[in-house]
């Protein structure tokens, strides 16, 4: 199937208004402070798609500041409210389906039918996570029958600011699979999008910006993860890092060592062929929800 | 006359469109009854006739159960949990979109103040559907095994005190777990259930997944005793609950019951007094006292009883009783003439038994069913008004001296639905909670509900829980 | 010890040796039954800590429920006019000048030049050195002149400086003084010092001026502290308890006012003396002001529904009250161009 024009052009040669792709930090869409950009081409290299912003370490720094600022508010909203916001995101995702189908197809080199399947799976994945906001505590928390006159309970709490390296090959479904569990539990996120297929990430950012997600809760940066990830891995105000999108095992090791500086919680990339082999369509389970939750246990005496 | 007189602030009725008559919602459509009769539904605040609804007959019940069975065996059981969840999300969203209409309709049909239906009932309805929508595709994580199965067709009979909310409490978890339902709303409050039928159509819910049949006690009995249902869920009086428990004996039907209560609201001498007074008022006068978990027995520590009662009486003087559609009304109409008679009768009993009766000065409208907030002091455990559920705005006040005595008195009842504890001391809250034989304990608050929070009783207040992860258990084959 | 004489609103102070200033002995009365409470810091602390606690969630929920009251038509007209009459029109800026104060006084006398039926405000509130300008500008109007004093807003100065500040304002013609309590002393548990300072300040006023005691509830942080500070200020003879200086956020909130009105109500029930409540800072819209009136109405009652029972310390609130008032009269929404900025 010929992709040719974007889905917004019509047959009689009308010139389309092309979209600009910028970063998403603190609820706004700035260009990189470095002024840099890079060419995004279709998966087969044939076509120019867009110039995406090439994020710098300062952009990453600013994104962490925004994420930290947003954390107290976001983590203290009710679980119900977070679920409502995420469900609204799903509604907006659904509304932009054709735009996503185009971007995912062009960027990953997928036939239309496969691009549609990937986008539909991403929306459904988002809905699945939205429904966890007010249930993960019931599954991960407990009251503990300690051997003494105490009421003892354990509650899961979000860890804080989480840096995410998105899967390079699965530009929407993989991205959603990493981002949704982080923010539904009350964490805030700084995401390094796929370098070769960054456009769905920015369109996702537009969805977030129009869905009552407070600014700073999710920050999306396009560019070279290999360049930026070390700055996030060593950042002392980042609480956790998900290295899923790092395909180079040596780099992943270096990043994990850098993360040890403030004992970040680390999610390692999948073993073997990196995320190329990951099937993102399966049941995600609870691992990605658990990875960024701390457990707080409280004791209180029981007596008159 | 008070200096600051609130002018009438009526919510407009124009948003609702009540039809002159309704059929039954079976198999996705409104249909005429086969052998049902018709009766009138009345506005309890004005006694005006609102509409004519059907009292479904045995053949109507058959038809509804058959439709639910067909939907269960057919379209509904083929759907993934994810898709069931999506239907529930649609229902939740439409409830939000039509929230003002539903709130006004509820107040007109039930008599409760618009402020309550707008700020409490309808938002909770939407929240329940949202919460259970999210469980539909996660049942394997709910602690009932890796692949819990639904029961089949659920017969659900609900009361008149929170009509739409009780509907949500029943339908949302049932559908999330993969069941189909036949629901009978209370005879005095059918209208929001019938509006919900319309919402099911707007959501394109597969026909037969939800069936709504109106009627009174007979219809309910026929439904519950129908051999084609796999599950019975009932909220209502303990008396009827007992009958249902007997009728399902020896069958394979699973049953959950949420019945009456005579909750103790215990106030200690170190309670935050002003908030305790609010909690007492909220506990027994919210929803005109038509609440199964109402704090109908105030147990106040003797050393602080006089001060508390003085404050309580002063507070009752600021309660506003009147037109349920006035946004400033606190206390609405009693739901029916029958209920009003019962409340009056038991209040007279209270006086005869020797308790001292007090109400703030209260102008009751001429038409409609009304009862002023009433407090009985000098009540003891042996009085009928301390033992029997009045289900009206009547508070019985007893005293106690020590925490142990408070527990003894609080637990000295066949009921066990809820209880309240007011104290500044954390360990005492937890000790009381541990000792109280009640399914819901509210500490330094009262009458709080949330879809994530399991609700249900001990002893004769019923069994099974609604809400939370636990609430799924009622609708799974576990 | 000389027998205390009866004089409403005053409370006995401790022997002068404990205070830094020399003040003439005072005629005071202690509310019946409270004589021992102020005998020492320990007894005062035990009393204040023995007051019933305030559950934060419950208090805020009650305030939120009262905020849902729908006040329309005649009730709204009544409320707007009452709110205007309760405004202490305020300017407390380093950059205040006589010109600014004169303009404010003119506004206070005639808030809406297009509508003579609009009532004047209760008071103008300024820094003490601008009182003479206000006196001249308000002559014959009946509007009170309130001056902030006692090293407002921080209160961090020696007591004799704070009292001199107060004396000067009274001498210049202020008939209301808005003092600040020493929050540092309060939070450090030196309740009797806080009490003594309030008593000393009230003595400087003599019999004519009335004393508002600013608790600075935003710094007290908990409702329990607000209740305790309210009682302390009322026992010490304050005529009004006031939420805030307006220089610290959060300033007035509906739940804080609710707790203070409950305290004032309870104080009157136990002592017979009525103390007013002033909410200051952060009240910008007529809708907010009407909510406060609802809270007064349902928590404290009619007796507080007048400028002698309640005040709003505000500046921009007045124009919003006027806009709403105009909307009620004309039927359409008003715009800010039609109201004076002073």
Structure characterization notes:
The complex is a heterotrimer of chains A (304), B (478) and C (342). Chain A is of the alpha/beta class and 304 residues long. Chain A has one domain (37-301): Aldehyde Dehydrogenase, Chain A, domain 1 (3-Layer(aba) Sandwich). Helices cover 39% and strands 17% of the residues of chain A. Chain A has ten helices and ten strands. Chain A has helices at 57-76, 79-95, 97-108, 112-130, 136-140, 173-184, 199-209, 225-233, 249-259, 287-290; strands at 37-41, 48-53, 142-143, 150-158, 161-165, 188-192, 218-221, 240-242, 265-267, 293-301. Chain A starts with 36 loop residues before the first strand and ends with a strand. The model of chain B has no long low-confidence stretch (mean pLDDT 96). Chain B has two domains: 24-259 and 458-475, Aldehyde Dehydrogenase, Chain A, domain 1, CATH 3.40.605.10; 264-443, Aldehyde Dehydrogenase, Chain A, domain 2 (3-Layer(aba) Sandwich), CATH 3.40.309. With 478 residues, chain B is an alpha/beta fold. Chain B has helices at residues 58-78, 81-97, 99-110, 114-135, 163-176, 191-202, 217-225, 238-248, 273-284, 305-316, 337-352, 384-387, 403-411, 426-435; strands at 24-26, 29-31, 37-42, 49-55, 153-157, 180-184, 210-212, 231-235, 254-258, 264-267, 297-301, 356-358, 374-377, 394-400, 418-422, 440-443, 462-463. Chain B is globular, with a radius of gyration of 22 Å. In chain B, the strands form four sheets. A seven-stranded mixed β-sheet of chain B has the order 12-13-14-11-10-15-16, with helices on both faces. By secondary structure, chain C is α/β, with parallel strands linked by helices. Chain C has one domain (41-330): TIM Barrel. In chain C, 44% of the residues lie in helices and 11% in strands. In chain C, strands 1-2-3-4-5-6-7-8 form an eight-stranded parallel beta barrel, surrounded by seven helices. In chain C, helix 3 packs antiparallel against helix 13, helix 6 packs parallel to helix 8 (191-205) and helix 10 (223-235) runs parallel beside helix 11. The termini of chain C are far apart. Chains in contact: A-B, B-C. At the B-C interface, helix 9 of B face helix 2, helix 3 and helix 12 of C.
